[in-house]
């Protein structure tokens, strides 16, 4: 059996920091490594260019059925500035593996690859299994969107992210946009009769915090709670003695299942322009993501829960506040769960790590799932 810890260590050594829109093939060396590794272990692998020389990698183990289980995770990591451990030199200490991407998400990637390698080596294969390692998850999700364009139609998907070995079936989406207040500007010694954009922006912040956000409690969903809104950035002013001509707020509006982020933006824009009909602009969203809410009674989800319970782990469905690629794959009607070793609290941190015991436990769960028939609605084996 290929050692999952050794493979994570190899993956950490290959930098794959998201370039945030710069034209750099950031994840491609990692995609090429994954493809070569998979082929050496009896699997087929293909590279698919997304943009700027950045490639998704798709690995397949054919099964007795054309029905496919999709394993999906991302190749990119966040930046390494400020890290207190060597970002690309894996370090093991006190049962923890340190390095950038160790839990988000090279740990899940290694879990998927080693489980598939064992499947390829022999034994029952009730399903075809496809792994997609995609680019750009940490920025604007272009890798998973390109994957959707390939038309993969699995019976279910496991999205590799740090979940502390819990089965996540629901998470929030988001709508992020900028609100700009404008004024004539001028000398600060003569402010009378002039609209100060900073004052307008302050009033908008008060409205969002005191009226808009509290009303969101009525939209709460069982696993993730209510939507939320936070003002996350403010920019304005050019000098201490100058009235600014503009002030811009950036907001992060988290959505729940049943909310369309574009509609959320439109309704918020209309309300702000009703209250401030002059001197306020609400830009179209610069980031939009969808919420996830997979039916816990879906046969694929119940199969994952059954494997978790059999391995002694908590099989109950869980919700989280952050987003994943699962929400994009679910748009095509695919039942999705998010699962992996490590905790989201460690992702993006200066000393990112993944526990070794969780790597091994996740590897066992995924390996068992790939050999388990999906259950029908009555609990019988359907495939």
Task: For this entry, give a set of tags.
383 residues, alpha+beta, Aminopeptidase, Alpha-Beta Plaits, six-stranded mixed β-sheet, five-stranded antiparallel β-sheet, 9 helices, 19 strands, 29% helix, elongated, disordered C terminus
Write a concise synopsis of the structure shown:
The chain is of the alpha+beta class. 29% of the residues lie in helices and 26% in strands.
Produce the secondary structure layout:
Blueprint: H1 4-12, H2 28-40, E1 44-51, E2 54-61, E3 68-74, E4 91-93, E5 96-98, H3 106-121, E6 128-134, H4 142-149, E7 156-160, E8 167-171, E9 173-182, E10 186-187, H5 197-215, E11 228-236, E12 242-243, E13 246-255, H6 261-275, E14 280-282, E15 287-289, E16 292-293, H7 299-310, E17 317-320, H8 326-330, E18 336-339, E19 353-355, H9 356-370
Parallel strand pairs: 3-6, 3-7, 7-18, 8-17
Antiparallel strand pairs: 1-2, 2-6, 4-5, 5-19, 8-16, 9-13, 9-14, 9-15, 10-12, 11-13
């Amino acid at each position: 059996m290929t050692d999952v810890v050794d493979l994570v260590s190899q993956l950490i050594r290959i930098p794959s920091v998201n370039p945030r829109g710069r034209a750099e093939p950031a994840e491609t060396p990692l995609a090429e490594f994954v493809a070569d590794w998979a082929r050496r272990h009896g699997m087929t692998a293909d590279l698919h260019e997304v943009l700027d020389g950045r490639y998704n990698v798709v690995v397949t183990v054919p099964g007795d059925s054309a029905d496919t289980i999709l394993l999906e995770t991302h190749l990119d990591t966040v930046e390494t500035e400020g890290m207190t451990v060597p970002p690309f030199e894996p370090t093991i200490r006190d049962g923890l593996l340190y390095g950038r991407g160790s839990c988000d998400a090279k740990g899940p990637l290694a879990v998927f690859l080693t489980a598939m390698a064992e499947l390829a080596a022999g034994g029952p294969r009730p399903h075809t299994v496809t792994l997609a390692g995609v680019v750009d998850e940490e920025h604007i999700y272009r890798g998973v969107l390109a994957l959707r364009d390939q038309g993969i139609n699995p019976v279910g998907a496991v999205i590799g992210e740090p979940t502390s070995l819990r089965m996540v079936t629901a998470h929030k989406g988001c709508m992020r946009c900028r609100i700009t207040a404008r004024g004539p500007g001028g000398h600060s010694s003569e402010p009378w009769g002039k609209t100060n954009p900073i004052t307008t922006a302050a009033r908008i912040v008060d409205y969002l915090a005191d009226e808009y956000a509290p009303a969101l409690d009525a939209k709460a969903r069982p696993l993730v709670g209510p939507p939320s809104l936070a003002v996350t950035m403010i920019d304005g002013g050019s000098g201490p003695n100058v009235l600014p001509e503009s002030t811009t707020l950036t907001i992060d509006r988290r959505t729940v299942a049943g909310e369309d982020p574009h509609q959320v933006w439109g309704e918020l824009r209309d309300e702000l322009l009703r209250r401030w009909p002059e001197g306020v602009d609400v830009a179209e969203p610069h980031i939009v993501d969808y919420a996830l809410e997979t039916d816990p009674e879906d046969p694929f989800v119940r199969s994952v829960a059954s494997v978790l319970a059999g391995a002694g782990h908590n099989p109950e469905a869980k919700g989280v506040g952050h987003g994943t690629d699962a929400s994009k794959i679910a748009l095509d009607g695919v039942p999705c769960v998010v699962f992996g070793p490590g905790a989201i609290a460690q992702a993006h941190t200066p000393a990112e790590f993944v526990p070794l015991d969780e790597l091994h436990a996740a590897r066992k769960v995924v390996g068992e799932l790939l050999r388990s028939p999906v259950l029908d609605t009555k609990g019988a084996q359907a495939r």
